[in-house]
Amino acid sequence: MLAGTGSDVGKSVLATALCRIFLQDGYTPAPFKAQNMALNSYATPDGFEIGRAQAVQAEAAGVPCHTDMNPLLLKPQSDHTSQVVLHGRPIGNRDAYDLWRNPTSPTTSASPTPPLDFRHEVCAAFDRLSSRYNPIVMEGAGSISELNLRHRDLVNMPMAQHAKAKVVLVADIDRGGVFASAYGSIALQTEEDRRIICGIIVNKFRGDLRLFDEGRRILEDICRVPVLGVVPFFKDISIEGEDSVAIDQRMRSQQTDAGDAKKVNIAVVKLPHLSNYTDFDAIEHDARVHLYYTIAAEGLKKADIIIRPGTKSTISDLQWLRQGPLAEEILRQHREGKTVVGICGGYQMMGCEVLDPDHVEGTAERMPGLGLLPVSTTMSGQKITRQTRFRLAGSDGEELTMSGYEIHMGTTHPVNGAPPKPFAVLNDGRQDGYVASARCFGTYLHGALDNAAVAQLLLAPFADRVGQRPQHFDYQAFKQQQYDRLADHVRRHIDMDRLYQILSTDD
User: Fold this and answer.
1) What is the DSSP letter of 489?
2) Is the pLDDT of residue 382 over 90?
3) What's the pTM?
4) What are phi and psi of 138, to 5 degrees?
5) Which residues of 418-436 are buried (b: 16+ CB within 10 A; e: fewer)?
6) How crowded is residue 208: how many other Cβ atoms within 10 Å of its Cβ?
7) Which residue in the list 66, 273, 334, 446 is annotated as catalytic?
8) Does 440 participate in catalysis according to the annotation?
9) Annotation marks residue 446 as catalytic
10) pLDDT tens column, 446-471
11) What are phi and psi of 506, to 5 degrees?
């Protein structure tokens, strides 16, 4: 288990690296995180939902992702409530305080079955997974020393004890205080838990590694645990992220949402409940594109293309758009000829209205949309999660060579006599999305922009400025290359021989 001194110390990335290293070394690894809290999720091959980080780690490990890799997923809907996804299916919404006081599944009138014990469920998932793969690369959550939450903790040391895992503590030196955070994290454990902490990885080091030689010795002396490695900070390796922390950091570092006159400028609206921002990782690597995130009207004015991404709370985020200047600015830029695109919840917002008669998202039963597409969305309690193959509508006869996935609640249909004008035709014959014009369309398909043909469709109106892409960009091959580069980086800076020795002992 990779446990942390805090959140965002790099556990997920290091777990991805170790999954790849173990695969390279001839093992059959698989990732596991008992409980994840994230809006960035993914659809498994059998049509269930897990955290995106575990899907990425499974890809690095060379195995299909499965709900046993992330049996419990919490998707925040507000500051106080989350949708609870157990074994890939939503089972209700929980207040955060209630969840920590009583870690069992919610009982509703629609689901009168006895509540499930989450601890039993996540432990059973681990047991199933560990019977199929070896080693299991486990990931903790946040800090392992949140004393007030210890008795309800499902994901850190109690899970490590169940799994009989060797725990490696990850400490982020970039944020400062690495000695206090590592020492304190270990000192605050019970004697039983301290015994299974077998190593420390100091992560995100900047500068000359030799400057930390003495620090490494000091850390080993005060913690009485070996330092397995000091991993340098990197910026040149691209790994899909677990949540939008990286986006927030990038936005804070930007003085303005500056455009690039030589490229196609794509502004992604940073919605409060933004989900699946990895939809834009592939096109961000296109040399013709300058992509940035914004919550400012000025940022929209500098864009050639405005994208509203997916969201966990369509109605709430639509209301947020309409209360500020962004909704009117999007409409103004559309009238001036800018391209406007919506994905998933962003597509729902582009319609005439979003209806919620069953109060799936809250108390509002109707919210006017932006009116850019002649469609209406009705929310429902049934979540659609599935991978799919598709072709662009109008490309009759072509094979279903493109791939994407759906994760959404609600269905969308044309209204006011508008004829169907789908964005895509799916492998089961269903139609997806709506196209008003080459500069105004929406789709439910996450991952659509990973496909070169969809990226080309989006950028086609700007061919006179940036030309055509000189060669096909294979995003899947690119990701595999990045996993190998990450593995090489981590392998150079941690003592794998010592780690293997630790893993081979029974103590």
Assistant:
1) H
2) no
3) 0.89
4) -90, 150
5) eeebbbbbbeeeeebbbbb
6) 9
7) 446
8) no
9) yes
10) 999 999 889 999 999 998 887 766 55
11) -95, -10
